[in-house]
């Protein structure tokens, strides 16, 4: 496939580039900082803002799908996720690219309260609640977009792969707690989803108890 990846220099994005190239895909990788990504025969690097619709439209030309995995470092209020999504949806519609996979995470929509005690009681209220307020806006924009979308909601990130089978839930039962997943596993799940044509208009919540 010919993929356009936003947030390609981040934790998930960098893992995604390596695995996508290993699987034989061609990637256009967006970053905001020169020199953060090395070009290869499989990876073309483009430097620009993820909220710049004209920039996005130029680089979406003849792509098969867009993958949105941008992140923020601050804990304050943000509109980066919704602003980027608004620009990306418009650019995809103009470029006639239909397939979108977006990464939000634990704290979006009905995943809130399902990340384990420490995440639910400490990390979310103290560190991530502001970004998830905007990720809720982001998800609403995607759902109204008319695109062929999938929203992937990973459990809290860890450095290590989990034990046992990965849990994939699209209808979250009461009491379910998914406490961990590695960024590499999320990258694998994204590519499997695209290659297999799975989870269209669904929001899989993925991780390990």
From TrEMBL:
The membrane-spanning stretches of this chain are: none
Domain of life assignment: Bacteria
What Gene3D superfamilies does this protein map onto? NAD(P)-binding Rossmann-like Domain
- Which chain positions lie within coiled-coil regions? none
The terms under GO molecular function for this entry are: biliverdin reductase [NAD(P)H] activity; riboflavin reductase (NADPH) activity
The family database entries (InterPro entries) matched by this protein are listed as: NAD(P)-bd_dom, NAD(P)-bd_dom_sf, Polyketide_Oxido-like
Residues in domain NAD(P)-binding?
A: 7-196
Return the protein name: NAD(P)H-binding protein
């Amino acid at each position: 496939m010919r993929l356009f990846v936003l947030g390609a220099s981040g934790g998930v994005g960098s893992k995604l580039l390596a695995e996508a190239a290993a699987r034989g895909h061609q990637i256009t990788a967006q970053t905001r900082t020169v020199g953060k990504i090395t070009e290869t025969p499989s990876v073309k690097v483009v430097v620009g803002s993820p909220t710049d619709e004209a920039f996005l439209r130029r680089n979406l030309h003849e792509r098969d799908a867009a993958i949105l995995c941008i992140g923020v470092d601050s804990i304050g209020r943000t509109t980066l996720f919704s602003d980027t999504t608004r620009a990306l949806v418009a650019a995809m519609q103009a470029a006639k690219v239909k397939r979108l996979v977006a990464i939000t995470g634990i704290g979006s929509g009905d995943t809130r309260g399902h990340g384990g005690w420490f995440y639910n009681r400490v990390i979310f209220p103290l560190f991530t609640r502001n970004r998830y307020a905007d990720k809720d806006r982001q998800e609403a924009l995607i759902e109204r977009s008319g695109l062929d979308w999938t929203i992937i909601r990973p459990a809290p990130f860890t450095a290590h792969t989990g034990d046992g089978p990965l849990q994939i839930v699209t209808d979250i039962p009461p009491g379910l707690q998914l406490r961990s997943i590695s960024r590499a596993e999320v990258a694998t799940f994204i590519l499997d989803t695209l290659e297999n044509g799975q989870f269209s208009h669904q929001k899989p919540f993925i991780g390990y108890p």
